[in-house]
Amino acid sequence: MAVASYLERYRYRRYSLFRWRYKLGVSQKLGLALALAAVTGLVAQLRVPLPFTPVPITGQVFAVLLTGVLLGRWYGGLSMGLYAAIGGAGVGWFAGWNGGLSSLTGATGGYILGFVVAAFAIGWLTDRYVSVRSFFPLLVLMLIGVGIIYLFGAVWLSIVLGTSLTKTLSLAVLPFIPLDLAKAAAVAGVAYALLPKAAYNGEVDSVRYLGRRF
The CATH number of the domain where 40 resides is what? Predict the structure, then answer.
């Protein structure tokens, strides 16, 4: 009985957190967007350079995926847009404490644009579909987010460096897959724990979840 009561309280608090996020004012949501942009800048400094590619291993992907989950589509995308814009303006919170337009136009700049699109896509789907909030759909969604980041990063790198498809994949995608799979699974686990399994704000599939609590 105590376990059931604990689970009920946990589910209610999870639902309340989701509701709280929706009801925040614009200034509060902007503050959260800026805060998560700063978090992305901090984990960007968890950086491991690789000798054969200009693209380092960093903690950014984890933060980007989680931002989409926590802030939803508009403010998740905005958060990563702020990360790109403020870093492009000169604040050194890109990987290696770098900043400025050269970071956006250089070989790794495409990943940063991919961050914006990935956070928006993840936020849009988790906001709109209750069915996405189970673990395996969330894992698939996080892998899609990683794929979006890879796509933008690889295309831009190939344009800047003029590399072939095979070379681009070896520089921009293949070395990062194992660790990014782990990051995607970790964020899926966190998202599963945080996101309610009941409809709240007119989700597309809300009819299927009528009567479900939290």
Answer: 1.10.1760.20
Give the type of residue at 142: M
CA 42 vs CA 81, 93, 171: distances in Å: 16, 7, 24
Indicate the DSSP class of residue 199: -
The rounded distance, in Å, linking the Cα atoms of 83 and 75 is 12
d(CA 51, CA 122): 32
Q: Is residue 183 part of a domain?
A: yes
Provide the token pair at 33.
Answer: 């967007």
Per-residue pLDDT in tens (0 to 9) along the chain, 214 residues? 566 678 888 888 888 888 898 899 999 999 999 999 999 999 999 999 999 999 999 999 999 999 999 999 999 999 999 999 999 999 999 999 999 999 999 999 999 999 999 999 999 999 999 999 999 999 999 999 999 999 999 999 999 999 999 999 999 999 999 999 999 999 999 999 999 988 887 788 877 766 666 7
**Domain enclosing residue 100, as ranges:** 33-201
Helix (H, G, I), strand (E, B) or coil at 57: strand
Structure tokens at 91: 């604040």
